[in-house]
Amino acid sequence: MADEQLSQSGNFSVDFWDVTVAPNVVALPPALYSGDPNAVNPFVKAGKVYMIVGCNTIDTKWFDTSSGDPALWCQELYSLMGVTCVCMSQHLFETLSPYWQHEKVTLITEELAMNGRQFFADFRAAAKIWVPNTEASGNLPEYMKKEIALTDEIIDQVVEFMFIFAREIINDEFDRRFLRMRPGGYVEQVSWETQKHEAREWLVNLGQNGSRTPFLDYLAAEHGKDKTELANRILEKAEVYQDALSDLLVQEQKIIKEFKSCTSVWDMNIKYEQYFGMPIPIKQAQAMGLTEGPDSNIRTTEVPHGFQF
After folding, report:
1. CA 143: distance to chain centroid?
2. Is residue 204 domain-resident?
3. What is the pTM of this model?
4. pLDDT tens-digit series, residues 251-280
5. What is the domain range of residue 102?
6. Per residue in 171-197, pLDDT tens?
7. What are the C-alpha distances in Å from 187 to residues 58, 79, 195, 196, 245?
8. What is the tally of structural domains in the chain?
9. Hey, CA dihedral for 182, 183, 185, 191, is it positive or negative?
10. Angle at the Cα of 196 (from 190 to 197), degrees rounded to 5?
């Protein structure tokens, strides 16, 4: 085999490994990034995916873009209370996403991601953003602040962005609470359904009609308990657990519904303070009469930290 084999296709060429030199290496495309920023590699899907993901969905190691490899591009755009807005190469997304909990991933548009990150919690009619200074020369700065109007479309996007973040934050917290509610060990969790089934089986048949309750027999003998008493205790605990689980689910849905009903960034800020302990912007607090004066930065009401539910 020649030292180098060249495959031509369209406007690009691909160099392959010479397997005679490295016989244990399968013939593969070259490294996905050659160091030339203008090079186009046909094996890399150039698209980008924007998403908001729940806690612990994406390993933070992917946020390191120092390699410059476009196939491994992943940038954290905004992060709050464990929830993250991420821009990721389509190539990397299609590789990693099959292993994620899909209920913790919300795909969004680039425009929603950019406006949500830029104007999160900004309730004003206009805002200033940094833009390149096209007239920069000499000692003039390369960037300058430019005032832009926050249109109804931008505001709707910010509200949606804040709602998705709120929903994921709430879901993550209630997932943690659910895990704390469950029986302690893994074996106990797995055996819980068996305990309930055999408890009902015993109370209905009392060992007659060919019914068997081997696990309940073991528990009664191990703890020196009467089987009927033990069966009743198991079902009582199961009812308490189901009631607590129902209360948890109802509480979660009610809070999410409150955030969903918000139609303005102003209202969203109030909910973030009410439930997450995140102070509303000081200008809004002043307008609401929550400071010592119209120009004061000192709140007259205490903002508790952490979750308030």
Report:
1. 32
2. no
3. 0.78
4. 999 999 999 999 999 999 999 999 999 999
5. 45-164
6. 999 999 998 887 766 777 778 889 999
7. 29, 36, 12, 15, 20
8. 1
9. negative
10. 100
